[in-house]
Amino acid sequence: MIKFFRKIRQKLLKENRVTRYLVYALGEIVLVVIGILIALSINTWNENRKDRAMEANYLKGISENLEGNISELEALILDEDIQSPKVKEFANRAGYIKALTLAKRRDRIKLLTASRVLKEEIQNYLSHPNL
């Protein structure tokens, strides 16, 4: 194919047909630009496909993580329901009720901080703005 175009170009130059040569050159430039645009479109499509796959991976991980957290929290709630009256009674007798309340607050803050960090980390990969 390249030999074909080279022969056309040389033939036009030998015959001193400058205007036809310029039209030919312009056509060749347009074909190259179209090829580049097609390649860029394919590349963009491929990158979007990879991003969606990564997004699906993140969402799957988040879902699994949340299920694990729910199980842990249910176990902690059950444990706290069982031990809470005993702990409160002991804390009241020993005067540690404020320390116990502060410890619970710290645990909640750690959980919320971890959730915020995860949200900020994956926010760039999510395609839906409300997620």
What would you note in describing this structure?
- It is a single chain.
- The protein is rod-shaped.
- The chain has helices at 2-14, 18-94, 97-122.
- 89% of the residues lie in helices and 0% in strands.
- The protein has one domain.
- It is mainly α and 131 residues long.
- The model has no long low-confidence stretch (mean pLDDT 74).
Mean pLDDT across the residues is 74
Distance N to C terminus? 51 Å
The number of helices is 3
Indicate the structural class: mainly alpha
Shape: rod-shaped
- Proportion of residues in helical segments: over 70%
**Tally of individual domains:** 1
Following the backbone from N to C, one meets helices and strands in this order, namely HHH
Low-confidence stretches: none
How large, in whole angstroms, is the Cα Rg? 34 Å
Relative strand content:
under 5%
Strand segment count: 0
Largest sheet: none
Short description:
The protein is mainly alpha-helical and 131 residues long. It has 3 helices and no strands. Helix content is 89%, strand content 0%.
Secondary structure layout plus pairing:
Layout: H1 2-14, H2 18-94, H3 97-122
Keywords:
131 residues, mainly alpha, single chain
